[in-house]
User: Fold this.
Amino acid sequence: MFALMATCALAQEDAAKLSWMAGCWETRPAPGLSIEEQWMKPAGGLLLGMGRTVRGGRTVFTEFLRIGPVNGKLTYTARIGTKGVTDFPVLRLSETEVVFENPTHDFPQRIVYRKSGDGLSARIEGSAKGKERSEEFPYTRVKCE
Assistant:
């Protein structure tokens, strides 16, 4: 039990290392397309976030996100729309990058966040239908409203 408590404490400390993700972020990859993510600052061993994609004035995608301990390991948990949750345990963590991976998930298998100057870069990657695929999201900090 002590080992599990120590592991959970380490996962909570790891969550605190991701304070650079906190805030409101937006990218506009095409005219009429806006992708937003908002992350609360780490507290109590967790970061909570949400995302929304708006195309042509209409919301086309939503997600609710959690980064915190799951089974003693720092884990990115995503709830897409009304579907169930998918866990991506941490693979690597540094001062400027975190990589989460779930090799059994259809797509993506990896989720990467990087601190990029004043911005935030998110990337999803893996294979889909036997082909390697990735999508990059270069976010700019925006005012939280």
